[in-house]
């Protein structure tokens, strides 16, 4: 694919565009940041500790898991191991950026990857798939989302139990709706149906059987490997 | 009782730093590993199929766990995306339909 040989740029304009595209996600992360702040306070974390965690870890699901097993003294090993497992799905996302990010400097690529989450990774990926060469989408959207995440964590912690349930407003659905919209854009035709169906069935089955995020890894591997085998074994599939 | 706002327990800070290191290792690790794997036709086909498969695997259990409001909301968001071609509009439509359906169902 000669597409992968085209240069990739890294500009301020691209970062700003990334931040703009991340606006709905940032609004949603404010709601969850508030809830996380409240929960972290109840689990015994200080305002400084909760804010530090949001700033350095910046991975909501694993932070909720961590405060779920938090205690006094803090079970450091269990917390770190749980984080590693919950975030293992990021391995696949990072791998998928390889064709384009390998064209950036190491500092740009490895710096950007710090900001990669479930919701801004599709923004960067879609930009590349549309044929854009801008690699700063991840860092721009990530910085914006990180700042709203930390601010809302601190606010939630400070405000304590006064925060209502974001479910009433359907705000917990933001991420699901976003994924649905992304899938419509990623759909390349009927060739995607089989791998996606395999991914969905595997993910739901594993989710029912095993706690944590293993279902994402299992479903993603099953679907993507099935698609790759189909594409390389015969003439069927996408025009590559 | 919430602890003092600015207190930093050494064990808590150790756990947070460990979490940060573990998370970054996952974020950067997949990208790094690909450096050592030869780019073949099969590898390219695999990378091309990862995005859709990852998002489907994130989405499917969320919808399955949620029930009818979430199922309908997902269909609404996808349909609006298809017709309007704008993700913010699609997301708003999805959220609005879920909030509404939760009142009704």
What do these coordinates show?
The complex is a heterodimer of chains A (240) and B (105). The mean pLDDT of chain A is 89. Chain A folds into two domains: 12-186, no CATH class; 187-239, no CATH class. Chain A contains 13 helices and no strands. With 240 residues, chain A is mainly α. Chain B has 105 residues and is an all-alpha fold. Chain B has two domains: 9-38; 39-104, no CATH class. Chain B has helices at 10-33, 41-66, 68-84, 87-104. In chain B, helix 2 crosses helix 3 (68-84) and helix 3 (68-84) runs antiparallel to helix 4 (87-104). Chains A and B meet through helix 2, helix 3, helix 4, helix 5 and helix 6 of A and helix 1, helix 2, helix 3 and helix 4 of B. Chain A: Keywords: Cell membrane, Membrane, Transmembrane, Transmembrane helix, Transport. Chain A: Its main location: membrane. Chain A: Pfam families: AzlC.
Provide tags for this entry.
heterodimer, A: mainly alpha, 2 domains, 0% strand, B: 105 residues, mainly alpha
Question: Could you give a short description of this structure?
Answer:
The complex is a heterodimer of chains A (about 240) and B (about 100). Chain A is an all-alpha fold.
């Amino acid at each position: 694919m000669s597409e992968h040989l085209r240069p990739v740029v890294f500009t301020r304009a691209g970062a700003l565009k990334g931040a703009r595209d991340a606006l709905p996600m940032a609004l949603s992360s404010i709601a969850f940041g508030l809830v996380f702040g409240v929960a972290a306070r109840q689990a015994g974390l200080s305002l400084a500790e909760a804010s530090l965690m949001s700033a350095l870890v910046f991975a909501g699901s694993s932070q909720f898991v961590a405060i779920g097993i938090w205690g006094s003294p803090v079970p450091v090993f269990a917390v770190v191991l749980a984080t590693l497992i919950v975030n293992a799905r990021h391995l696949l996302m990072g791998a998928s950026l390889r064709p384009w990010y390998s064209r950036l400097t190491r500092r740009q690529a490895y710096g950007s990857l710090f900001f990669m989450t479930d919701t801004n990774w599709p923004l960067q990926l879609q930009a590349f798939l549309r044929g854009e060469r801008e690699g700063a989408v991840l860092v721009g959207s990530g910085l914006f989302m990180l700042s709203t995440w930390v601010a809302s964590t601190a606010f939630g912690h400070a405000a304590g139990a006064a925060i209502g349930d974001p479910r009433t407003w359907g705000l917990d659905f933001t991420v699901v709706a976003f994924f649905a919209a992304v899938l419509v854009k990623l759909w390349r035709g009927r060739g995607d149906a089989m791998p996606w169906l395999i991914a969905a069935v595997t993910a739901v089955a594993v989710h029912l059987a095993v706690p944590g995020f293993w279902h994402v890894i299992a479903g993603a591997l099953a679907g993507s490997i099935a698609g790759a085998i189909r594409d390389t074994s015969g003439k069927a599939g996408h025009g590559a | 009782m919430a602890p003092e706002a600015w207190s930093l327990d050494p064990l808590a800070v150790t756990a947070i730093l460990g979490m940060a290191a573990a998370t970054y290792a996952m974020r950067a690790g997949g990208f790094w590993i690909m450096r050592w794997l030869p780019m073949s036709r099969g590898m390219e086909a695999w990378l091309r199929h990862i995005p859709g498969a990852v998002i489907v695997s994130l989405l499917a259990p969320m919808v399955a766990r949620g029930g009818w409001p979430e199922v309908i909301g997902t269909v609404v968001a996808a349909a609006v995306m298809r017709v309007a071609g704008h993700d913010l509009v699609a997301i708003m439509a999805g959220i609005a339909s879920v909030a509404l359906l939760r009142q009704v169902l």
